[in-house]
Automatic annotation (TrEMBL):
Annotated protein name in UniProt: Endonuclease-reverse transcriptase
Top-level taxon of origin: Eukaryota
Keyword set, alphabetical order: Endonuclease, Hydrolase, Nuclease
Entry's Gene Ontology molecular function annotations: endonuclease activity
Length: 133
């Protein structure tokens, strides 16, 4: 999970994370791949509270809040406020877009304003973790 704070989690990447997490759990529990156990049963046996995706999202949110409270180069890079021209074609999904969707904030601008208030930002992260989205 080293460096996971900067990952952009798309739907395709999310499915891959969930699949590899399930593979890890089956390996740790020594469940053969021929065994007909559903993923729900494997999760019950593992009794894992939070998935790998939730842990990554929480790390991303805390790191994002830390970066946004500072007025440095990292802030400019992550928000995408750099000069220059955009590439042709469909724009890639950005870290800020995925974070706003996960936190349930209406827009990226509103989310950036909430990062300035540390207690409110922590409340947003805790609420998103409880909902488990």
């Amino acid at each position: 999970m080293y460096g996971s704070e900067a990952w952009t989690i798309t739907n395709k990447f999310k499915k891959k994370l969930e699949a590899i997490e399930m593979w890890f759990l089956r390996q740790m529990l020594k469940i053969p791949w021929k065994a007909k156990k559903t993923n729900e049963r494997v999760l019950q046996e593992a009794q894992s509270e939070r998935s790998l995706l939730h842990k990554i999202r929480k790390r991303q949110a805390t790191f994002f809040g830390h970066i946004m409270r500072q007025e440095k180069l990292e802030n400019v890079i992550i928000t995408g406020m750099m000069t220059g021209r955009r590439r042709r074609g469909r724009q890639r999904e950005r870290l800020t877009d995925g974070m706003a969707k996960w936190l349930g904030v209406g827009s990226v601008v509103a989310m950036l304003q909430k990062t300035k208030m540390r207690q409110e930002w922590r409340g947003l992260i805790a609420n998103a973790m409880e909902q488990g989205t």
